[in-house]
Fold this protein.
Amino acid sequence: YPSLNGVVTSNLTEAEFQKEKPWLGGQIYDWASKARRWHRIEAPTSGRIVALEDRSKLFFSRTHVVFDNGASVTFPAPVGETQQALSGGKPFTSPVGSAFKKGEIMFQGTVDGGDLVLVDKISYHFRKPVRGEVFVFDTLGLERKIGNFSSGKTGDQAKATHYIKRLCGVPGDTLRIDSPHLYVNGKIATEKGIANVFRLNNLGLEGGHGYSYARGGDTEIFNSESTLTLSAQAPQGMREYAALGDNSGNSLDSRYWGTAKEFNLVGPALFSLWPFTSGHWGFIK
């Protein structure tokens, strides 16, 4: 758990890197089975980091780390994960302003790719979305709201055109969080996928677990008293749904930007195709 993984970086000391890095054949196996790559990235110049620029294309996440003299080095991960990796693995810490000497190791460790998912684009034409299932939706019409949260650990998510989250509210529902629990229409949600989250550690919160509150201003569910009500009486295509991430502490979701409309929905996530050893391979629950 969580149900699916995004890109994950792991910092290693020199001793750990030398001990754990496999030979070439082992690295190929790591990539094929775990989507894991081993990297040692050195500073191309002496200077300070002034910017992290997203250069992702298609399925490949890339970040340009730019120095004050214009030189740059490419990091094989989204901006948020690059930021954490260059800050020694500490979340919510920016490396901008950090100084390096030419040839100094900026990062050494592993970069694990996220899960590759097969989406069922047919089912929602024949049945209603079901609370508790994992689903995919686009961000059409949500760009401005989501764009307000373009910094910090959730910043990479703000640039996405499609999200995959757990469907936690359907039209007519009212949602409230009393951490770690999610309440739907005044009762603790009982759907298995949602209930499993109550027992999770929130990686983005020190000592936290389960569902957490949104951080920052202009959010929807920011304390135990705030609620999110989903419109059922709306024109076709405009009925509202709530999407929450299983890893609540690191998820940019309906707690922040509100509801996804019916026309945004793509379909339920059906099958995790790869990597095979993530613990998520198979039908998505």
Summary: The chain is about 15% helix and 30% strand. The two ends are 11 Å apart (CA to CA). The chain has two domains: 8-112, 116-283. The first strand starts at residue 8 and ends at 11.
